[in-house]
Known about the structure:
Layout: E1 2-8, H1 20-23, H2 28-42, E2 44-50, H3 54-66, E3 71-75, H4 84-92, E4 97-101, E5 123-126, H5 130-148
Parallel strand pairs: 1-2, 1-3, 3-4, 4-5
GO molecular function, one term: 3-dehydroquinate dehydratase activity
GO biological process, one term: amino acid biosynthetic process
Protein name: 3-dehydroquinate dehydratase
Amino acid sequence: MAKILTLHGVNLNMFGKRDPKQYGTATLAQIDEQMAALGKELGVDVEGYQTNIEGEMCSRIHRAFEENVDAIVINAGAWTHYSYAIRDALAILKAPIIEVHMSHVHAREEFRHKSMFAEIARGQISGFGVDSYLLGLRAAVAAINAIDAGK
């Protein structure tokens, strides 16, 4: 069974409490539950991981490399816009990376328009709330299937 790691970055543990206009009311636990349920439906194992510490995120990405994780779905929060360390850790991976955001980052502050991960991610999904994660999971499964088919 393919394994997909969902990485949640800085401040995302505050989903459900933080700015519901931008992020909705779903908690991180609810997002992880929906991801696991959809993963089961799609025939993949989904693990969620969240940290507010950049070095811990890099270490988890390194471990994903060692574990041969099949794909990554990542919402790095604000780290998306400035973390070269996380970008470099992700670049080590051979697995496809799907970047997701609950809010529509390109309709927000200018600094949110730049992604450090854009060059190495398979794609970006933003602005659909929790559905951004679910669409990201579907994109990750499609990317795994394309690799398996030799495309």
